[in-house]
Write a structure and sequence with these properties.
With 314 residues, this protein is of the alpha/beta class. It contains 9 helices and 8 strands. It has a single domain, classed as Rossmann fold (3-Layer(aba) Sandwich), CATH 3.40.50. The radius of gyration is 18 Å and the shape is globular. 48% of the residues are buried. Pfam families: Hydrolase_4 (PF12146). Its EC number is 3.1.1.5. It comes from Sphingomonas kyeonggiensis. This is Lysophospholipase.
Amino acid sequence: MRENPDIRRTLPAGAKVHHWTAPDGWHLRAFAWPAETATPRGSILFQGGRGDIFEKYLEAFHHWHEQGWTITSFDWRGQGGSGRLTSRANCGDIDSFDSFIADLRAFYAEWEAATPGPHVVMGHSMGGHLILRGLVEGAIRPDAAVIVAPMLGVKSALGPFAERAARILGGVGDPTRPAWKSNEKPYTTETRANLLTHDRDRYSDEIFWQQHNPEIVTGPPSWRWLIQAFKSMRELAGNPRLRKMPVPVLALVAKADGLVDARAALKIVPRLPDARIVSFGKESAHEILREGDKVRNRAIGEIDLFLAARAQRR
């Protein structure tokens, strides 16, 4: 199944891009595409990763919308079209991952009340981490969840000392300064494109949207973001409530992922009481849903099967 590239670079006629106001007054850019059927299949809230924009996932959104799902997404605070928390150009910063969870909790509550069920949440990379954390902490309680290449650990040359090194380096000077200059990963010869996907056409979709609207471009993370990410991942991995979280979860994991540590997901997800893991080998980089057709079609197919079997009203 190879989608028309036009749908990846054009906002759907029935969709609305707007700004949602968080309880503290912060404006988050959001996407809403109601189902166009008298009997909607349900509603999906899809959340991207660090530096992501919802436009990158229009191809997947089209697929689910054609099946009758209402599709919703928002850019995380401090990135994409949801403003910046530092004056340093496009640096992605956050004071605490608790702020992400607070936004998710408030947005989800309004979204769940306003959209048809069953309700499904999906998250890629950092979004996968935050969705799982939101589930474990009870901030959200959907009928089913999908996490794609979840950021439950990160690849680092420093291994177990990475968090300590981030705290030391981030504590010298302004912690909101960029942690590195460019690329998705410091000290690597891999290009950003190779780290994300083997499909050059799909990779170029992101460049198209950035050129179309330069304000949504998010560059490297801040040291503070990095420190808070390590803290949040460590605390989630050690949370005893993982074993009691009742929502069924499908996890798609790329074992050759060069950004997140797939081993962390393969260790943590089995602790959930109702979870299934689908893994990919060297054929997939980090962005599984934006990979070549063979990988993407398998991933979409697995998600569809999971939704048919598990996304029912509770």
